[in-house]
């Protein structure tokens, strides 16, 4: 571990302090006679390292140091391994260093920056530029390069490597090639290439069962390859039957093919699909029951894949996820040494408090320790944003600063920190989160408060202190009031009450007034945009709950202007921002009066064939054959909120199935209008028998996920919604986007 290593180093440094003459000669001042020495056969990352060193020393001092193959008898900065480095410092052997490990050493009036390949030397240069020159690369667009009239290189005797072998802040802002390399992350999804030392390559990444054994290819002839649930095999939302020998053969063959097609990849995913539905056949059930968890069949299967791969490709790893139903570790099985277990930080959990201290995280911590105890490599999938509200203030930095060191203490080898990865980025505090995560993933002992202050000063200039007060207001309120939230918590969870939002306006207004230039003002407006989003949310929520429309159009117009200026594309994981813009500009009531019926089998549209209001008018007094052939009948529901929550209205609700909601729209004439819809999970919508919308899901329901244009005839129009249930939440929102009183929703059975 790095901490242990530094203890050893500190002892070395103590010994060095006794030789004053050596110390005085080891430091030197950079001048025009200093040469950057680079070997002729340097790899691209080492060439880039020398060029970065040259560029930033020149930006800082005005001196452009030449890059050459020898020192020519003068002082030199030796970058990377090579003949000259070996001649001048034969004991500094690059081959003994890890791929991301480096040495910074002053000796004989020279500086040696030497690292393992491919990234070690480059990381060593960045460490020197950060710690000696004072450079920072805060965002893709904002850097700091202090001016030095005299740059003195102090005595250096430093050997360093990252605390985690895999480091991924999964934010759009962190994908940038130069930002990622300069901040020493090796993200799978970043734009890193060989010129900057490349990155970790992985094929498949996650949720790969359907890709490895496609249901559309195999199900018709071999339904036994897929999950048996309640005695039946299904093609929809299925997993694999992990005890079927043919499935094992197909997966191994598919992985071999992927290895051959992706030689740069070292990790290949064999992981469950992103839903439940594990196989319950006799063989699978026996293993899972014996192991006390459905992870039993998963690990038994992946072990066999890893064993086959290792025999042919010993340097390749299989990666699987402990996620949802497989989160709990098996009792007796042990993952193969070449099997990476990626544990996902799932609910029940708390993202506002540290893992180690919050009781809500106890089960997850127990699972983490169980996996760490039995696995050769453990990666963690850690969530650091709100997936239902990317733009909502999400004060979780107090948890982040403790969680990353906690993972290191528990033996975790790599961390994937999932944030907003939509193409437009713009998630709340995404740039600051990316920066702090990059620093902690490299060094868990990073001073987080000092690093935050440094970042804010660099990005917001003289306005940094008000931005810090805004930041502290949010975090202090959560801490003081012991508020718990997770990755899907709604804003109503309690961390954004009106009084806090109002208090937060004060420092943001102050920051805008003190902004030094238009660029900084734009950055501050982006911070205010996140608070604007929260205010807009609560104003819209008032409409949902009471029917009172208090939406502030000035606030809306400002939000849209700033969001568009920043190129935002999504407001949540599943929802693009354009329909949200549209819904903000369109007023109209939520439909709260419905006829509902269910549950039905998920696979069949029992009621839509014939289309209510047309060929087969609905009989509200009759019964229908529902799920498992149970009789179901229509029930009338009126409010009290815009959210039609089937989990409160239909039993059983924790199923795979579907329910219908029906209302009637009365119009005084033929007209085109729109409805705004949101559902959990997928939904189909018909108007007068014609399907007008389909969304497969799965996702949580939020208002106005999509805008759907519809045509109304004069008189009575039937609006029918079919909502799929895949587990957990189940419901819908529908808003009629018109304020014309001549169009209204009704549950009257006759016009």
What does this structure look like?
By secondary structure, the chain is an alpha/beta fold. The protein folds into three domains: 160 residues, Chitobiase, domain 2; 281 residues, TIM Barrel; 154 residues, Galactose-binding domain-like (Jelly Rolls), CATH 2.60.120. It contains 22 helices and 32 strands. A seven-stranded parallel β-sheet has the order 11-19-18-17-16-15-12. Strands 20, 23, 25, 27, 28, 30 and 32 form a seven-stranded antiparallel β-sheet that branches. Helix 17 runs antiparallel to helix 18 and helix 18 packs across helix 19. The protein is globular. The N terminus is likely disordered.
Task: Set down the secondary structure blueprint.
Blueprint: H1 2-16, H2 20-26, E1 28-29, E2 35-38, H3 44-61, E3 67-68, E4 76-79, H4 83-88, E5 102-107, E6 110-115, H5 120-133, E7 136-137, E8 143-144, E9 152-153, E10 157-160, E11 166-170, H6 177-182, E12 202-203, H7 209-212, H8 215-218, E13 228-229, E14 232-233, H9 245-261, E15 267-269, H10 282-291, H11 295-312, E16 317-322, E17 339-344, H12 362-374, E18 377-383, H13 397-409, E19 414-418, H14 430-442, H15 448-460, H16 464-480, H17 498-513, H18 518-546, H19 553-565, H20 577-585, E20 593-600, H21 611-615, E21 623-625, E22 631-633, E23 635-638, E24 644-645, H22 646-649, E25 657-667, E26 671-680, E27 683-687, E28 690-695, E29 706-712, E30 715-725, E31 731-736, E32 743-746
Parallel strand pairs: 2-3, 2-4, 4-6, 11-19, 12-15, 15-16, 16-17, 17-18, 18-19
Antiparallel strand pairs: 1-9, 5-6, 5-10, 7-8, 13-14, 20-23, 20-25, 21-22, 24-31, 25-30, 25-32, 26-29, 26-31, 27-28, 27-30
Helix pairs in contact: 3-5, 9-11, 13-14, 14-15, 15-16, 16-17, 17-18, 18-19
